[in-house]
Design a protein that fits this description.
InterPro entries: Aldose_1/G6P_1-epimerase, Gal_mutarotase_sf_dom, GH-type_carb-bd, LacX. The chain is mainly β and about 290 residues long. The chain has one domain: Beta-galactosidase, Chain A, domain 5 (Distorted Sandwich). The protein is built from 1 helix and 23 strands. The longest helix has 6 residues. The mean pLDDT is about 95.
């Protein structure tokens, strides 16, 4: 079921399946900022990545000596959430572990997802509650896709990103199996800005690690910010479908990422993983701000 919320500036829609953000529109102009989810490019709009972000080595992980298969980005995006709170400008969704999740992820949990409109921004909050009597290991992240180009231009020519760093930005890449390669490349110059060159997205996601930025903006051909994603997450993914010239760009704050191609450790040893003690709560958020 799709739910709508509204304030004086924006209207947002969220689907209960996956608790997925589907739309952010300006009330004044009617402009849609979220990707439409056309399957010929990518059927999703803003899936929640939990309890894994990205791909695992051999599509499996090891915990307490047992191997568990796991698909890319985990399973939360493909499950029905329950609405627990609904206001005119705020919605909360809940996913609780069950027998189907415990078969592939041996931890009980509550995953609360909150959406709240504040002025020209949407705040998204994640709360992960460890309901086990043991330590829980997980990753969580966003995968929000925004229309780019925004004004029906034929392609992304003239569009770009501002990482708001004031210095160069380095990114890691992945191989054909979705695993991170060693080495980094510069994707933004000393001002922290870049324009999309032809073929920029043809080889997959760019992974910006080590808290290089806490704010990433999409720029239109006039150099104007029109969507800004802010978060304290230590990693950001930047993506658009490979070799499709798709009319959207994903800006993805992550607490966790794919395995490195050379990784040979256990679940507890995964890089950038989060570790939550029994009955503790992990809470983080990110914000999508719209500039009209």
């Amino acid at each position: 079921m799709r739910y709508k919320m509204k304030n004086e500036t924006l209207t947002a829609e969220i689907e209960s399946f996956g608790a997925e953000l589907k739309s952010i529109k300006s009330n004044a102009t009617g402009v849609e900022y979220m990707w439409y989810g056309k399957p010929e490019y990518y059927k999703r709009t803003s899936p929640i990545l939990f309890p894994f972000v990205g791909s695992l080595k051999n599509q499996e992980y090891t915990y307490e000596g047992k191997k568990y298969p796991m698909t890319q980005h985990g399973f939360a995006r493909d499950m029905e959430f329950k609405v627990t709170e609904q206001k005119e400008d705020e919605l909360w969704f809940l996913l609780v572990s069950d027998d189907s999740t415990l078969e592939k992820y041996p931890f009980s949990f509550e995953l609360h997802i909150g959406y709240r409109l504040v002025g020209n921004a949407l705040k998204v909050t994640w709360k992960v509650v460890n309901t086990n009597e043991k330590e829980m290991h997980f990753s969580i992240g966003a995968h929000s896709e925004f229309n780019c180009p925004l004004q029906d231009e034929s392609d992304k020519t003239g569009y770009g990103l501002d990482f708001h760093t004031g210095h160069e930005v380095l990114a890691s890449r992945i191989n054909a199996d979705g695993l991170m390669l060693d080495g980094k490349q510069k994707i933004a110059e000393d001002a922290g800005k870049m324009l999309f060159p032809e073929g920029f997205f043809d080889d997959g996601v760019y992974i910006v690690e080590n808290s290089q930025t806490n704010r990433v903006s999409l720029l239109d051909p006039k150099g104007r910010e029109y969507v800004t994603v802010s978060s304290d997450a230590p990693l950001y993914g930047i993506w658009s479908p490979e070799k499709k010239n798709a009319p959207f760009v994903a800006i993805e704050p992550w607490y966790g990422r794919c395995d490195r191609a050379t990784f040979a450790g256990t679940l507890e040893e995964r890089e950038w993983g989060n570790h939550l003690m029994p009955h503790e709560t992990f809470e983080q958020s990110y914000e999508i701000a719209i500039t009209e």
